[in-house]
Write a structure and sequence with these properties.
Elements: H1 3-34, H2 37-43, H3 48-54, H4 58-80, H5 87-103, H6 107-116, H7 122-148, H8 156-168, H9 179-194, H10 198-218
Helix pairs in contact: 1-2, 1-4, 1-6, 2-3, 4-5, 4-6, 4-7, 5-7, 5-9, 9-10
Length: 219
């Protein structure tokens, strides 16, 4: 691709990301219905027609926002789950990563994803479904390993259906957490999953890690 054409593509991508960032903030504050293309364009000192040149409709813009959230979230989760951790360590890292996404710099985009998903067109939901399913699959595998290790006292699939929505709405009742508070909350959530105290969860996690090291040194 000639440099001039590549620059046009890069400029368009950069501009599109700017639209997404502003629109996501509007939708996080005002909701999908309360957000207008005119309001977004006004903040960016552009015309509505310019924005429509990039996104033909407000629903297309919503899809782009949620797509950005999905891509970001999966990237964070993949990084957190990169190694073959023990079942309890895997659960802890997955919960911490999920909370880190919600309380991170793109948290407002994920709030839009959680609250406005149902406003997407059926075609848009279908386009995003495979990416959503990938994340669900990571949770299924995590809970399957917990179940196989004898830690779970409940049905893994029922637990997943309850746990993911609960995690997604955490930021509505636990506000402005620093890193230490977020890790403490993650351990509290893990203890709820196992139906035990936080102290017992941490003890079990230490014991599991020590056993893993022992097995590795004698294997």
């Amino acid at each position: 691709m000639p440099k001039s054409e590549q620059k046009v593509v890069e400029d368009r991508q950069r501009r599109g990301c700017q639209f997404i960032a502003v629109a996501a903030r509007h939708m996080a504050e005002l909701g999908y219905e309360g957000t207008t293309v005119r309001g977004i364009a006004k903040e960016m000192e552009l015309t509505s027609a310019t924005l429509f040149h990039y996104f033909p409709s407000k629903n297309d813009l919503l899809e782009a926002i949620i797509q950005a959230g999905v891509d970001h979230g999966l990237g964070v989760i993949r990084d957190a789950m990169g190694a073959d951790f023990t079942p309890l360590a895997r659960l802890q890292r997955l919960v911490r990563a999920h909370l880190g996404i919600l309380y991170g710099e793109m948290g407002h985009i994920h709030r839009v994803w959680n609250s406005e998903w149902h406003k997407l067109s059926a075609a848009a939901r279908e386009r995003l479904r495979a990416r959503n399913e990938e994340y669900r699959g990571i949770w299924r595998e995590t809970l399957r390993r917990l179940n196989g290790a004898g830690y779970l006292k409940s049905d893994a699939e029922v637990l997943r259906h309850l746990l993911l929505p609960g995690l997604n709405w955490t930021s509505t009742w636990a506000h402005s957490l620093d890193h230490e508070q977020m890790e403490a909350l993650a351990d509290q959530i893990c203890s709820v999953v196992l139906n035990c105290s936080v102290a017992d969860f941490r003890r079990l996690e230490r014991e599991e890690a020590n056993q893993e090291r022992h097995d590795g040194s004698t294997g």
